[in-house]
## 1
Amino acid sequence: MHLYQNHSLLNYNTFGLDVKTKYFLEFDSEEDLIDILKQSLVRENPLLVVGQGSNLLFLNDFDGVVLHSAIRGIQTVEETEDAVLIEVGSGVIWDDLVGYCVKQGWSGIENLSLIPGETGAAAIQNIGAYGVEIKDVVQKVKTIRIADGQSSVFEQEACHYAYRESVFKKELKGQFIVTSVIIRLSKKPVFNLSYNHLEKEVLKNGTMNLENIRNTIIRIRESKLPDPKVLGNAGSFFMNPVVKRERYEALQLQYPDMPHYFVSEQEEKIPAGWLIEQCGWKGRTIGNVGVHAKQALVLINCGGAKGKEIAELAAMIQQSVAGRFGINLIPEVNFIS
């Protein structure tokens, strides 16, 4: 257990906000975490569990205890001729895991390359990109219950995964801490290239294999998204809204070129970035904050911004989109007050 007071969270939020927490604790095992949860310091103060903070927006300094997982390591749990089951520590950097699996020739998460954050947070958030979500490979999520330090294992079905959602973000929010994630990958690569001309982009860069898919996705993401180390951001700030088919069809009559993705016979998904761009926000700055010039879904810290400034910009964007399209944008990012 490592305890720090008045600790900077600059390295634990990708917006690059210079905020502090009253106490910062790091654990490197389940046993360590269980001991920490017994401490009066933890039980008597507000508690926040963070990874790299790629989905957090701090509005102020945090007057409580921030916990961070340093549980690392990737272990093979089970292996057959066709598949491999691995257990990944919650503190493993997600993209490091993707790179490791690609080198091993294991497929299933290569489309999720270069997504920032750690594995524990990825399982909570149900990260997704290019037609793949982490729920597609998760078998189990191992956790410790905050209230009593008891270990609990959630099978995939019990995680209640949905678009950028899980049981850990809704019904059980703030009740469990993820310590490791067990995922199943294929040893006989099955490529998922159905998303928006991805196959064409991969083939432009070489032969069809896991490494080329990963490298292609990295290049695409780097061309669209700013590096948080250079320009503070949390990637996609808003979720892509899913609307009823009647609403979608009415909008399509007004905007024939509007991009969209089939969800079901009753629903259609519309890219939030397109909606924001239509409202004139792409590339616009207000004071220390702005909307990225290459991707309207990304809000940026132009330098020296406060969390409240970013929140105010997000609210203005929401108001614009609701006023023009009648659609309420929901943030992917969690606001921490």
Note: The chain is about 25% helix and 25% strand.
## 2
Amino acid sequence: MRKAIITAAITGSVHTPSMSPYLPVSERQIIDEVLAVHAAGGTVAHVHVREEANGMPCAEQESFRRIAAEVKSRCDIILCTTTGGRLGEPVSKRVQVATTLRPELASLNAGSLNFALFQTLGKFKEFKFDWEESYLRSTEDFIFPNTFKTMREFLKIFNTTGTKPEFEIYDVGMINNLAYFIGQGVVKTPVYLQFVMGILGGIPATAENLVFLVETARRQIGRFEFSVCAAGNAQFPMCTQSLIMGGHARVGLEDNLYLEKGVLARSNAEQVAKIIRIGRELGIEPATPEEARSMLGLKGLAQVDF
């Protein structure tokens, strides 16, 4: 059977605590969710951290360290740390986790975009915490900055720490950005792409657009592995298409709070179990963490700093 990398994006920086009682926000909740994802057959956990008191996304380095250290002591799942951080986080703070933990895998956003969440405000009448409404509203006038200088500086740090970039591709122009760095010799192939679809400001989550992304990457990059994540109710259809096309899949509460229409997912592990069931119907098994390390050329747990 073919093997696919199944990633769970545990909490992210998009959804706020009022949107779901099952969104993990504390360190303990995030650790428990990662361990449950591993037990369900997940390969990778994509990790953001949040403030303990109110669930606001942050880039607290000791939170990253405590979460990563306990997870490593209890299982061999691959941790993919974010360098996206909280929307509006200073660029220098976003990349700090790469030098703090020297992880095997970390996200690297391949371009700037209007990252909009303000359109969700009409769905919620009350918020648990004061920061939530203003955080969402501010994205009407927000650009998620990932300039060529930013990317070059991030890549230099990743090369120093031996961290494999997971290139987050929100739109087709970002493939061109990455192809430029490959042409300059700054990035070596094969690369690992995460096609992030359905964000307002990025490429819509459609079957045609995923084919377009993959074909464009084949022409401009050549050698790569790809995974797909999609916002909201597009999550499972787009992840299924990715598996059919020979790619990998990312689910998780960062991208979608639901298990099916009208039913909130009670955990990331529920979503992992669902996409694994779908994959098995297609003759695809979830890759183990060790298999994924080989597939992606990761340095291994012995060389991280947590």
Note: Residues 18 and 126 are 8 Å apart (CA to CA).
## 3
Amino acid sequence: MIKTLEWTDEGVVMIDQRLLPTEEVYPIFKTYEEVAYAIKEMVVRGAPAIGVAAAMGVALGARNITAKDAAQFEQQFQLICEVLAGTRPTAVNLFWAIERMKTLYEKLKSEGLSLAEICVRLIEEAKHMHEEDVSINKAMGTNGATLIPDGATVLTHCNAGALATAGYGTALGVIRAAVEAGKKVAVYADETRPFLQGARLTAWELHKDNIPVTLITDNMAGHFMKAGKLDCVVVGADRIAANGDVANKIGTYSVAVLAKENNIPFYVAAPISTIDLNTKTGDDIPIEERPQTEVTHVKGTQLSPEGITIANPAFDVTPNRYVTAIITERGVARAPYTESLQALVQGA
């Protein structure tokens, strides 16, 4: 299994996804500031992986605090959480993970544990969240595999695989589970401009797993749908609103509209932690704007004229009317999503 990130006594080890597929490098991030940098600069990406990385960053930061007393420790702990929370605005798993660590800290503090004991427990929690994410992805894969027909060709956009999680994957986890169940499945992967997660990461993952993959540019998806080459679409998500609107990598909305036009099922695979019942609709989801150079340059080579205006939103929102079903570790939600998602979150 691909090791996206891992806790070690020396620090948090992450595969540098910016260098894939040509280089497989695993740097160690030894401070919470370095972990925050890794999240912000896309060394690690994908909502579930960002959440686990943030939890490890909180634990690492807490372990490294030098404080005279509990009050000073708490002040520094809150700063660590604020810095990590300021890295990426769209992926709700980031805030979910930090809040989970803060809640544990408050609980342990109220129980009278020493600062040293609190740090040990925070590390244990971060490691548990890592293991938990892999289990969640496998359960999600089992639930979603039933929706993938034997012999299907699946389109996916961006990377929602092991690299986007602690392991196994969300959208690619569904595909992996279908293959493990004995189904013959092939994948078309959108390249996913401008950061090329599909070309660099999804194609790399699937090729390593010997799952047949065909790489296409983003503007080819409609052609292959119309030609009858694709049977369904499976994507991940960075935040799902209470009404089932889905924020995912830029270009997902276009794929969903094309799928609807061509009567192709459009599935979203995401853990319960990605569902944000406090966000009523997709209109309320903040959309991150990424650096202009991601559009103007590829691997340091400039592609566009100097001085032109650049827009680079990292995500778009797909309205719920285009979503056939949302696959989670607790089951599959269908419209009306306001009811079905709430039931899944509440564990019904």
Note: The chain has two domains: 5-138, 144-345.
## 4
Amino acid sequence: MDIFSILLVVIGLSLFEIVSSIDNAVINAQVLSTMGERAKRWFLIWGILFAVFIIRGLLPWLIVWLSTPSLGPLGALTASFSSDPKVIEAFEQSAPILLIGGGTFLVFLFFNWLFLENKAYGLIGEKFAHKQGVWFYAVVSILLAIIVWFSMKINPLMGFGAVIGSTAFFITHGFKQNAERQEAELIKGESSNLSDISKILYLEAIDATFSIDGVLGAFAFTFSIPLILIGNGIGAFVVRELTLTNIERVKKYIYLKNGAMYSVLVLGTIMILESFGLPIPEWLAPIITIFLIGYFFLKSRSNLSNNTN
């Protein structure tokens, strides 16, 4: 990769991490408001190190290593930069399994948002789809059946990867729903007996759950663990700063979540197509992500200006 491609990937990763973590930032800000100053400082200083290096660094490295055990721990870290034919061959064999699993997860995530989540309607058709929420499980079940059917013809492990991706979605979705209930209890004071340490551990666990979207989406940009660490790390740092300083203003940009979710759909689709061998230019994922987030940012800003006037 040349310098321009690296910069494009890092920018795309950072923007995607920021907008896909807005819900997490809101939860963090609201729970932090119930904590003491010392605990807040600890979370914002040491918590960012945990979020960046442990979650956004360790998790993608583990995913690559587990999907290609023959690479070993060091090989998984440097595989995308390696010129060793054996490493390249092993990586190419396992990449479709990783891509189809991550892509399935992200596509499910988009349809869950489209059909079931409350939202500010940013495009025509979103309101109609939201009213048809009962169809969510039918749509994703049919999609999974189609993906598995075609992938089994190429490699049975790809079909298994798609099933793992769907399983991961429903597990993390359950954790997110529980997080929302716990957040409501904390804000209402129903869990006021929790210590600040318990709340910090809770926030770190929630951050790990929410980070899965960004980590899996990152593989649509690159398989380079160092670049994922840099891009997602920058995004995570910005989110922590927004949590502390401007979260109320960020919440007024009501269409940012729409941009994140349409990016999720595009990234998931790219990953699935790549898993079937369709060549996708490396610049496509970051360019589309930047465009979508930019469009919905401007749409949110316009809406904010109109409401102010």
Note: Residues 70 and 90 are 7 Å apart (CA to CA).
